[in-house]
Amino acid sequence: MNESFKKKLLRRDLLLGTIQTLPCPEITEILCSAGFDWLFIDLEHSTLNSRDAQYILQAAAPDFPCMIRVPAIDEIWIKKALDTGASGIIVPQVLTSEAAAQSVKLCKYPPEGIRSVGVARAQGYGDTFQEYVESANKETVVIVQIEHIDAVNNIESIVKVSGIDCLFVGPYDLSASMGIPGSIDDPSVQSAISRVTSCAEQAGIPLGIFGTTAESVQPYIDLGYTLIAVGMDTMILGSAAKNIVDQIQR
User: Fold this and answer.
1) In order of start, what are the domains of the chain with their CATH numbers?
2) Of 86, 49, 46, 93, which Cα lies nearest the Cα of 64?
3) Residues that are catalytic
């Protein structure tokens, strides 16, 4: 039996992933066979819906870890995403400890949380129902995104919330919230990220981050970030296409 993704995450193994935004199972198969450790399925900034997410999970290699980023801290979105069989949830725009605690509660069955009990793909359509509900609270990964200056200002209280498995920094939204969208290398943005890094390390919480290129995430890997998402399907396709054109037209 494969070791759980959560165990690897909490052990701080380096886990390299990428983002899928297109509802195409062939893309999923290609990304899963490329050597990535996990797949970031984005329902926040793409046109993907819950059904698309399930199709992506079905196309993924057996037991390939898939995290679904839901559009918001919302009970319906989170329970639907988990019932598709996702390994975990990425919650965007978590600004306070109260929002972080609510995110955890929505991902956990009672008595640890308030997730409602349904029968869907995650529960083997009923065939593995009891096995799933007994292990879900332990195995489901809860990732909260720190991508706003308000979250940075509240980071000391956020890291105290029990049940958070990883803090995932969103540098682009963070820079936008500071009035300098896209300027992720600005000293003020880097200072904010450093504050998050320090608090997470003190609390013993793994760190993750998104970058557009391998080069952009390497400094964070050197700092101890282990849940890494590099690029996305559209960017990878566009970059490869442009590279072909550039080589021929040179």
Assistant:
1) 5-249 (3.20.20.60)
2) 86
3) 45
